[in-house]
Hints:
The complex is a heterodimer.
Chain A: E1 3-8, H1 14-28, E2 32-36, E3 44-45, E4 50-52, H2 53-62, E5 68-75, E6 79-80, E7 89-91, E8 97-101, H3 116-134, H4 153-158, H5 165-175
Parallel strand pairs in A: 1-2, 1-5, 4-6, 5-8
Antiparallel strand pairs in A: 3-4, 7-8
Helix pairs in contact in A: 1-3
Chain B: E1 6-10, H1 14-25, E2 30-34, H2 37-46, E3 51-55, H3 64-74, E4 79-84, H4 89-97, E5 102-105, H5 110-135, H6 151-163, E6 170-173, H7 180-190, E7 198-202, H8 208-216, E8 217-218, E9 230-231, H9 233-236, E10 241-245, H10 252-264, E11 266-268, E12 275-277, E13 281-286, H11 290-295, H12 301-307, E14 310-313, H13 323-339, E15 345-346, H14 348-356, H15 362-376, E16 381-382, H16 388-393, H17 408-422, H18 427-434, H19 438-448
Parallel strand pairs in B: 1-2, 1-3, 3-4, 4-5, 6-13, 6-14, 7-10, 10-13, 15-16
Antiparallel strand pairs in B: 8-9, 11-12
Amino acid sequence: MKYLYVAATPEVEREALAAVMERVATEFGGPVRGMELGNLDFAYDAGRRQYASIPVLEQLLQRFPQDASKLLAVTERDLYIPVLTFVFGQAQLGGRVGIVSFARLRQEFYGLAPDREVFLERSYKEALHETGHLFGLIHCPEGECAMSLSTTVRQIDSKHNAFCAACTAKLRRHMGVPA
Amino acid sequence: MKTHWQILVVDDEEVMCESLAAWLREDGYVVDTARSGREAVEKARERDYAIYFVDLKMPGGMDGIETMMQVRHLHPDASIIIITAYATVDTAITAMKEGAQEYIVKPCNPEEISLLVNRIIKVKNLQRENTILRKKLTRQYCVHDVVSKNPRMQEIMALCEEIASLRSTVLIQGESGTGKELVARAIHNAGDRASKPFVAVSCAALAETLLESELFGHEKGSFTGANHQKQGKFEMADGGTIFLDEIGDISPKLQVDLLRVLQDRSFYRVGGSEEVRVDVRVVAATHVNLRQAVAEARFRDDLFYRLNVIEIRIPPLRARREDIPLLANHFIEQLSHELGKEISEVSEDALRLLMDHEWPGNVRELENAMERAMVTCRGAILTAADFSFLAQAAPSPQSWAIPPGMTIEQMERLLIATTIERAQGNIKEAATTLGIDRSTLYEKIKKYEIPR
Ligand SMILES: [Zn+2]
Ligand SMILES: [Zn+2]
């Protein structure tokens, strides 16, 4: 039996983590296991004051549990890849490990009053999105689908917290589940 | 569509290369990487990439600009995006001068890159669609109701078949009467929309407000006279094709509305607030030069480019005279039945007359001429005399004015007398010029008592 793992760095709020795990379990229909990660200081870039996502993914691969099918990490740290100012998350396409950052999903990041509902809704969508990538889904042209590309929170907010019919069908094929 | 396109990321730093590549792969592109300018050029030699992301600063004697120039040498149309860590005006200008499509400063906003890539790919998709279609045009065709043995027309019919099952918008340009609607129908009938409606609208025939409700429908009470909800042509054409004739004549407001439909595939009924979504293929036609209308700001350029995804130019009839006999026989067959006449063919002299006519009204004028001649024709063969109205209607530039009240017989007498005179009495030569045989000419000389 292989499990979908959701791992968290120490600063991640446990309640939000539990909610995301439940959402992922429902959508991907399998047992989800939790996992504790250390902090991401090794990936910190003092010049950018952000965390590089590539070394984090590399570390996740090293810590990949034997009974894991996929490993999705969540963190409060703001992530980047060198060519971009930030990423909401990153995953190996059709691979084993991915990560979602909660940093920019919070209203506070944009100088607004905290809104838990909005934050949770966004974190579900991004968790589904990156996990979708892990199962080989690419960006979906359907703007409301969780697999559509979001480069702003506005775009995240305008999509649904679910996959469209086409992506669901693809997902079933990739997961080997009969339609 | 995306998966067809390959992207090459060129950077000496592995993490730069691989992270951008991974990010682009999530978007569905096939992404290769190269760690030096030399490697990039080698890869470009093997295949053409849709987009090249090239880091400006690379060691080893070949920087981004040099790499770009060599790639461009191999693929003049390559889309190259130069990436640099610090924006200096000088390098930006050099890069643009050497043909970089864009210039991005890292770190770059993801939205910016995403928009940039989408924009380039959209253009590539359109270009690819067009070139694939145009490559296959040499085959011979005679599709549906379009009758032609003219090579250009056959190319057009081949194109119609090729594009029939696409959803791309088509713009048909041609003089009035060249058969633009026929071509539009051929496209519709050859594709997988054939079983769905084909709805034709002439945009020139109606006033702006009427045309608006004609196209988009209206809600009850949206204007005086709107007593109930009305479905527009776009809704009627759902799943099929809408043919917008004389598109060059629509008002600026309707140009905006139409642009919206083409972009979003949705619209609002006049006086309505509910968005209506449709799946309609748009085939537009115009007899005016839309490019010129765009240049003169009478027609929106964005709408023009949306419409002109696939362009079809129908030649005027005078540019394909070899089709005239074919068309004449086609109309005889068609109209004999409709008119209840037993006409079998066009005589040789009548045909010569038809071949020489300028046909400013194109195929439609020819069809009308055939009908008019057939209505008055007494025999089984259409003769030059049956088409005498053509000569009256359109004198050739160097011709003389026909005296009012002249009869066909008077005309024929004059023609024969003049021709014999020019042939200096040589009956054989005159008969050849007139396109009749000698015995017929002798009969006519006798009938008209022409002196020799
Ligand atoms: Zn993604
Ligand atoms: Zn989708």
